[in-house]
Amino acid sequence: MTTNNLSRRNLLKYSAGAIATGVVTVGVGSNLVIAQETPKDELNPDKALQELIDGNDRFVFTKRKNPHQNLTRLHEVAKGQKPFASILGCADSRVPSEIIFDQGLGDLFVCRIAGNIATAEEIGSLEFGSLILGSKIIMVVGHKRCGAVQAAIKGSPVPGQIGSLIEAIRPSVESSKEQSGDKTENVCKANILAQVAKLKSSTVLSELIKAEKLKIVGGYYDLDNGKISLVS
Known about the structure:
Blueprint: H1 8-20, E1 23-28, E2 31-36, H2 45-60, H3 71-78, E3 85-89, H4 97-100, E4 108-112, H5 120-132, E5 137-143, H6 147-154, H7 162-175, H8 183-200, H9 203-210, E6 215-221, E7 228-231
Parallel strand pairs: 3-4, 3-5, 5-6
Antiparallel strand pairs: 1-2, 6-7
């Protein structure tokens, strides 16, 4: 096909096909440069983390792309999943992972529980997400004014199984009690780090980390501005 025969319709068809396959074409003078975008599920741990950070930046600055949220993607992931990242997050309704990281169907393997604590079941799920599904990054996400953390600080009796959540967070209340500043934020960040350490103690996950196939990090979500900050 010559340049003269490259109609607007054919150009649009070609561009759509290139986008669908992850190929980006850039014209440089008379030459055509073709760059291949790495699929998310093939990212290394560092780039997977950066993808999360970039997505959160888009959310914060109202520049969301809403990727992988159409019927094409729905049908694609119906056949199987290859999430590039896993999230251990709080069950709080104000912290939906796919929205705050600007991701879509099949991108994130998400485990949510009040207080973002790493129970045996959560650890097993995240082991599956990394070892079997190939997730390259696990982020433990706690958040500002977490109700579970506030309850653990208060220490009052609670009904039913809620107490099991409080007990899991209580060590972080003790470990951070000498810190200055906002007590709830201090405990929340201490709890994030405690859950990161607990995940890293998993034999399955630690072996993936040693093989440089996985990273586990902590993130603190600000309810007021939507920003995720890394906790270390």
